[in-house]
């Protein structure tokens, strides 16, 4: 594809997004709550779209479609188990929201630090998030660089793609914090769902005459792709190790759980949850159909990662549609990156700076936190340019690595006996195990790091908590308040 | 509230467990769209409806 088309499409996307960001930040103050969580004033519709755009990255139309291409319908099961993890928000969403409002939490780590009365726990959780999420962001940038480079047949250098993506992510997040990110995410979510639906219809109706034709082709020519383990990729143990950490994604990943603080009311949170579930189901269906279509049309590819670029290069896909899909994938990646860097910056401000100096002025927290938006983006950019194997390992390990925070979150709301020592031990040891198993390819009893990091962190949290002294007074007060408020709001 | 919480937790545990097992142990020999593909789709819709029921009761 002509590089000029790509540059023009990206320029238009940037101009429209920037206009939205400027509109969104019109009422923004200079406080940390305002910058990082929009003062808890986001309406349900925007909250649903920012939640969707933050959660779904370039992985969907590239990685998940590729997994489907290789492993078949197991990818559909894996991704829907992840989507069903939102049942956890039905339990924890109101709890996060009520506690956040009452105690003024801005980050999920702040909630843990206060509940367990431990600044060390707060800092440890923030550092663990930074370690796993920067490489995850770097992989998103690499995805955009590779996509632009591949679609322009080398005319757009990989590095130029990285610079463009980093620049856009910085501008919107730095300019207007959560307000700008939430609104540009909404725009991007609409782009993602519209262009992917359009492109899928073009491919399925153009090549198979409709979904019936696609399913018939699969049943007759590729029946294994409709079963598990099917072609072999999704054997049961691999499936569990992959899906289990993702089931807890909505609690383990701070850029997502921080969004439980932002709705203006519980009604807005309801719209956010249900909106996301509908969006997620449709977007997952599209990504899976995309991968299955690639399998039926171009079965000889050497790697699943080639499925989407190869499908876009087919004659049945008009150039305009390919271009739109590229913008949609770019939007998916950028909306994830800017949410991550904003969340990590809020963690530096609230969980590291404020913890090390509790008397620090809010204006300083705001300024320093804001400066970290470009710094984290540049760090992700530098990681992406290095293309180290370690980055890929950390990125893949991120879901298993962040899973270790979940036992402490569950305990914070349901177990008064939980302690900071138990939480810190489980997070640090579980995180090291996740990285070690991923890096070393260690699979005791055939189970991957996603299973072991969860088991080890949960066991350590319970055992160490039982051996140490809990913050009884705070636990009573915190859980007592949350339970009382839940009753008032008729939430379970 | 406590009873409802436990009831819903058990319900979700059962349906999520089924999503991890049924397609592997009961549908691995059904190479049709009406096999694992349909099962997981129905599972997700049931989960979405269940979350819808819980959240519909929330009061502002």
Cα-to-Cα separation, first versus last residue of chain A: 53 Å
Mean pLDDT of chain A, nearest integer? Answer: 93
Residue stretches of chain B low in confidence (pLDDT < 50, at least 5 long) are none
Shape of chain B: elongated
Greatest interface:
A-B, 46 and 39 residues
C-alpha-based Rg of chain B, rounded = 14 Å
* Portion in strands of chain B: under 5%
Give me the strand/helix succession of chain A. Answer: HHHHHHHHHHHHHHHHHHHHHH
What would your notes on this structure say?
The complex is a heterodimer of chains A (492) and B (60). Chain A contains 22 helices and no strands. Chain A is an all-alpha fold. Chain A has a single domain, classed as Sodium/glucose cotransporter. Chain B has 60 residues and is mainly α. Chain B has one domain. Chain B is elongated. Classes of the chains: A mainly alpha (492), B mainly alpha (60). The interface between A and B is large, with 46 and 39 residues.
Keywords:
heterodimer, A: 492 residues, mainly alpha, Sodium/glucose cotransporter, B: 60 residues, 2 helices, elongated
Describe the secondary-structure layout.
The complex is a heterodimer of chains A (492) and B (60).
Chain A: H1 3-24, H2 32-37, H3 44-55, H4 59-71, H5 74-84, H6 87-103, H7 108-115, H8 119-151, H9 158-208, H10 211-221, H11 236-247, H12 249-252, H13 254-257, H14 266-297, H15 307-312, H16 319-356, H17 362-386, H18 389-403, H19 406-414, H20 420-440, H21 449-467, H22 472-488
Chain B: H1 2-25, H2 33-56
Helix pairs in contact in B: 1-2
